[in-house]
Amino acid sequence: MSRMTRLRRPGRSSKPTSSRNPSRPGNPGRPNSPGGSDRARAAQLSAAAGFRGRLFTVAALVGIGISLITAVVNALNAMGPVQIGLSLAAAAAGAGLLWLALATGRYRVAYVVTVVGVFLVIFPLLFFSGGGYAAGMPVFFVFAIAFTAFLLDGALLWVLAGVEAAVYTACCLLAFYRPSLVKEVGAAAAMWDSIYALVAAGASLAVAFHLLLRIYERARDQLARRNRQLAESYQAKSRFLALAAHELNTPLALIQLQAEEALAKGRDTAQTAPQIRHNMEVIAAETARLGRLIDELLDLARIEEGGMTFDIRPEPLGAMIQNTLTAYAPLAAAARVTIVIGRDGPNPIVLADRGRIAQVLVNLLANAVRHAPRGTILVDVAIRGDKAEVSVTDTGEGMPPETLAGLFRAAPAPTLKAARGDGLGLGLVISQHIIEQHGGDMRAESVLGEGTKVSFTLPLVERWAGVP
Q1: N or C of the chain: less Cβ packing under 10 Å?
Q2: Burial class for 232, CB neighbours closer than 10 Å (0-12, 13-18, 19+)
Q3: What is the per-residue pLDDT across 428-444, written as a single tens digit (0 to 9) for each?
Q4: Rounded to whole angstroms, how far apart are CA atoms 403 and 422?
């Protein structure tokens, strides 16, 4: 069988929403000024860049400077037009890729072009035209692989880093076995080139690591500050819930007491006006409902603060169910709902907090009554391994799968009207927490148009069918 249509999910409004800018009627979603649009786009591009974007910017600026200096050094060392041209080409490539990233936000494209065009093409050419492994280019090979690891991620990183390692290894092997492919440079030029490569590559990597450390420390400080703010907000909300529930509970209790006393006196007075009696019945019912909502708020505050306490001990499940049904019977009768207990079911001893399990049962029965008016509710018990399962099944309208999927998620009603109809939507959330604290679980099944079934389990102490 299936189970109750439980909780119409609050939060859905029948009013259509509009994305139109109120200051620009008929022009949905458009900013008010081109300047605002440019600033917004710049902010989006900056946010998208993140650490890699900032690192790429720094690396590009440093690379442009190093390439220009290298061109000058190569000219002074008479390295030839090829070496000078390649250095200038590297500077131009760095400037172009930096513009591409900053102007369009296509950082990942700039990263890949840098690795392929600069690290895998220009660097090997510089290697063969500038003395091979006798000069400083092998140091830049190390620099290239390290920056590739900073810029890329995922499968693309491993593919291109592997290609770089293979290409650079091949360059060194070719320089050794085919020395004619390498342009020879003087010993002094090779020494200075090696020193320059060590300093330039080392400085670039140092800047990258320093930037990474600064970003990490800033992010850590921001995270700690945000955590403190969230903790303060969380505590303030919990205090507000507890205070609001406590402050509302006292006058409501007095109102309910007065209404119940008036009703009791009215039953003994034949001349009591029907309208007055009806009004008092409404007051009593509404204050009882508000009292339940306040209890839900208090329970929610206790759950969030970890302060909900339990007195779990061996209890006869049948007696707990019977006592709860006896107390709830008048409300069910008022709604003309018939409650049936499964016949010949087991009556085990379970580990439970009697009051909390009664709270769960009342919540399930209230939901079933609300969604199965003039219907039937079946309360049944079964044994499932080392647990007892209690199920509450109604013959109501059932619910669609999308509602069933979010049944145990908190969804507070956004309006007083919605709260008046279905409550705050916290009853099942609180019930699930109570059952989980008992070591059990709660689940729901439903068929639209046929009814709903909600079940929960409790750990068994022993199987005992003789409890009165």
Answers
A1: C
A2: exposed
A3: 888 888 999 899 999 99
A4: 14
